[in-house]
Design brief:
five-stranded parallel beta sheet; Rossmann fold; about 400 residues; six-stranded mixed beta sheet; 2 domains; Glycerate kinase, domain 2; alpha/beta; single chain; 15 helices
Length: about 400
């Protein structure tokens, strides 16, 4: 019997690999001789780099970059294991490898204390430095996860780190952050990283907001980054001006009105920046991860798939890991079980979509700290009970 275990992390308690290990431990108590294939998963948000590195036996690269407030921060990105390349060789040239980057690592909100947050000044430069490092290593495929950013600069800082020169009308470089965008008069591409045009960049994005307007980056996400109502208007105007300059720059205007595209407003307008400046493609995060870790191949000849996340509810239906795993399992006609820390409103709708069964792991009402501390043991015990129930029908 082959069992594929492909969960997301249980936030604040277990990584995706930790969840997979616990489920395997519980199942092995009942089915010690089964074949287990653990595939740590993510949906493009927090934990994606670690999950994909774990799933592919890849490696982490750590370096010092520019944080969102201009101060140096330590950040890492992942390089997927060679087994997930097209050739599957253990000695692949760098251009056959894939780098995975989380924007929040370099440009995340957690890098700035709450009372110091000002999205007029924060920059995505550090994210560009991570991309640049991957390019310098010869990597030609990058997966970029958006979300959790402290920035609202439309990806301008990222572009500056990659060699785009953003100039004032006097020919001087603009300052970092959205405030600098108000000074922008032209964009020069002469110094852009020479390998960027040969790099495929796939962006994990699960929001459909445009760049500007009442549903845009500034109005929807600006307040959580510290924007006042007046600042929201200023930020929106700055991004609108940035988009106008980009649309009127001949080297960049292959597709007009990218600022109106769904997802352009993601991560403070980073969605716009990567599409307009890097020719990147936005995709649902879990779809990118499913493809990158070759989940379909790993499910081949499986008898059972197990997935899960910390809480399964109506939000799970909106592109979360369990849905992506379930949809792939259904395509391959494999029963799929979900295990969650707890179940919320709408969990029954997941069953209606095709999941075979869903199980929570919390055995009794307990303080949150106890629940998080005992997550491993509760998960092992729940997995064992599920396996024992399955054995009755075998």
């Amino acid at each position: 019997m082959k069992i594929v275990i492909a969960p997301d992390s249980f936030k604040e308690s277990l990584s995706a690999l930790g969840v997979a290990n616990a489920i395997e431990e519980g199942f092995k108590r009942i089915f010690p001789d089964a074949e287990y294939c653990k595939v740590p998963m993510a949906d493009g948000g927090e934990g994606t780099v670690q999950a994909m590195v774990d799933a592919t036996n890849g490696q982490l690269v750590t370096l010092q970059v520019t944080g969102p407030d201009g101060q140096p921060v330590s950040a890492h990105y992942g390089i997927l294991g060679a087994e997930n390349s097209v050739e599957g060789s253990d000695n692949l040239a760098p251009q056959k490898l894939t780098a995975v980057i989380e924007m929040a690592e370099a440009s995340g909100l957690h890098h700035i204390k709450r009372d110091h947050r000002n999205p007029m000044l924060t920059t995505s430069y550090g994210t560009g430095e991570l991309i640049r490092d991957a390019l310098d290593r010869g990597i030609r495929h990058i997966i970029l996860g958006l979300g959790g950013s402290a920035t609202n600069d439309g990806g301008a800082g990222m572009a500056q780190a990659l060699g785009f020169t953003l100039l004032t009308s006097q020919g001087n470089a603009i300052t970092y952050g959205a405030a600098g965008l108000t000074q922008l008069a032209s964009i020069n591409t002469d110094e852009v990283h020479p390998l960027l045009s040969n790099c495929q960049i796939d962006v994990a994005c699960d929001v459909d907001n445009p760049l500007c307007g009442p549903n845009g980056a500034s109005a929807i996400f600006g307040p959580q980054k510290g924007a006042t109502p007046q600042m929201v208007t200023e930020l929106d105007n700055a991004l609108r001006h940035f988009a106008s300059i980009v649309n009127n720059t001949s080297q960049l205007s292959l597709i007009n009105d990218i600022d109106l595209f769904p997802g352009a407003g993601a991560a403070g307008g980073m969605g716009f920046g990567v599409m307009a400046l890097l020719d990147a493609k936005l995709q649902p995060g879990v779809d990118i991860v499913v493809q990158a870790v070759k989940l379909a191949e790993k499910m081949d000849k499986a008898n059972l798939v197990i997935t899960g996340e910390g809480r399964m509810d109506s939000q799970t239906l909106s592109g979360k890991t369990p849905m992506g795993v379930m949809q792939q399992a259904i395509k391959q006609d494999i029963p799929v079980i979900g295990i969650a820390g707890c179940l919320g409103q709408g969990a029954e709708d997941i069953l209606a979509q095709g999941m075979t069964a869903i199980f929570p792991i919390i055995p009794s009402l307990s303080p949150l700290d106890d629940i998080l501390t005992n997550a491993h043991n509760n998960l092992v015990n729940t997995a064992q009970n599920i396996a024992a129930s399955l054995k009755l029908s075998i």
